[in-house]
Amino acid sequence: MNYQTATELAQIGNRSDIQTGAVSAPIYLSTTFSHPALGQSTGYDYTRTKNPTRTILEEALANLEAGSQAIVTSSGMSAIQLVFNYFPAKSEFLVSRDLYGGSYRYFQELERQNASVFHYFEDFDSLKSQINEEITAVFLETPTNPLMQEVSITEAAKLAHQYHALLIVDNTFSTPLRQQPLKEGADIVVHSGTKFLSGHNDLLAGVVVAKEPEVGQRLAWLSNTTGPTLSSFDSWLFIRSLKTLKVRFEQQERNAQKIAAALENISPIEKVLYPGIGAMISFCVRDAAKIPEFLNRLNLITFAESLGGVETLITYPITQTHGDIPKELRESYGLTDHLLRLSIGIEDSQDLLKDLICGFQVFDE
Predict the structure, then answer these.
(1) 195 in catalytic set
(2) What's the pLDDT at 365?
(3) 250 exposed, middle or buried (CB, 10 Å; 0-12, 13-18, 19+)?
(4) What is the pLDDT at residue 2?
């Protein structure tokens, strides 16, 4: 029977332990599993390859993203590394220009090693003008981090497939609740599972989901070979967290919509960047020199570099998440020292707005 998303999430792992009837799925801490006899297996041999707790999580994530197979890893960056290990050496990629600084740092390292070649696009027209038969895959953030730029996944997929390239989408910001890239034509989806999917700032994880079984099987083989394994306890914590994803995310989004609308009317703000969905808001202030004191005046909102948790965080990308991108480069596409990024939590939106307004008073002094 097909259930609604909220039901599917709440029921992850339920009825998986037939022997005891445990409602909460067990944590299988064992690293190794006995064989019934020579040449026989229960399906579980060694926990790097497969673990019962991790299996529950991966099946749930594959279902959530409408894919054939999910692989969970020890961090968002290990998930991206796993995906790029899928492609042959010397492959060429087209990548969103505005993207997470850690991804940029990794891509630069691959180029330094002469392992891959990366080209960058700003929007769909830029993507269209650069793609050719030499491109192996397109890597797309939509909305982008932190400028919230959007590109149609459907159109990007059609274009990539015309040139026999795969489309990889980082779906961390929107989550499968707001977009399912595999249904829109993408081939691989990645997430920093640390962010909205687990959502409590207490778990480091990555997610890769493949549309086609053969791609998923190859990624699973690579994961077993290279070992970016998520532990069984963290897999259980991830399962526990996913059960409340819809409730958390919808509250975060409601808060974000109210706050984004309010920020439009605050005079020290030059520009608000919010795509209308999700819980990520970026904004540019008129006077960058006032930012340190603005951050110091916040009492409720935490100045920290992450996102997606139940607690509201504010980040200064040029010194935190995107500090590894050269100044001239990031400023060339609009990431300046005037920009701040908010990850909205589940607190009461009135309290969050009061805290922000208190901080913004520094711009009038």
Answers:
(1) yes
(2) 75
(3) middle
(4) 85
> Please, which residues have CB within 8 angstroms of residue 303's CB and are 6 or more apart in sequence?
295, 313, 314, 315, 316
Catalytic residue among 86, 97, 120, 170: 170
Distance CA 364, CA 311 (A): 28
pLDDT at position 303:
98
Identified catalytic residue from 100, 120, 274, 316: 100
Angle subtended at Cα 193 by Cα 66 and Cα 273, rounded to the nearest 5 degrees: 90
Clarify whether 46 is annotated catalytic: no
Can you say whether the dihedral through the CA atoms of 145, 149, 153, 156 is positive or negative? negative
Q: Mark whether 104 is an active-site residue.
A: no
Whether the bond between 181 and the residue before it is cis, its omega within 30 degrees of 0, is no
Q: Which of 50, 54, 195, 211 is catalytic?
A: 195
Terminal Cα distance for the chain, rounded:
61
> What is the distance, to the nearest Å, from the Cα of residue 166 to the centroid of all Cα atoms in its chain?
19
**Number of neighbours of residue 299 by Cβ within 10 angstroms:** 11
The Cα 220–Cα 54 span in angstroms is 13
**Residue 81 in tokens:** 């590394």
Please say if 48 is a catalytic residue: yes
Give the span between the Cα atoms of 343 and 280, in whole angstroms. 5
Annotated catalytic residue, options 44, 48, 105, 106: 48
Bond before 143 cis per omega within 30 degrees: yes
Q: What pLDDT does residue 120 have?
A: 98
Q: Which residues of the chain have pLDDT under 70?
A: none
Radius of gyration of the chain (CA): 21
Q: Which two tokens stand for residue 48?
A: 């790097």
What confidence score (pLDDT) does residue 86 get? 98
Distance CA 88, CA 105 (A): 20
Model pLDDT, residue 47: 97
What pLDDT was estimated at residue 355? Answer: 98
- CA dihedral (162, 104, 187, 246) positive or negative: negative
**Quick one: DSSP state of residue 44?**
-
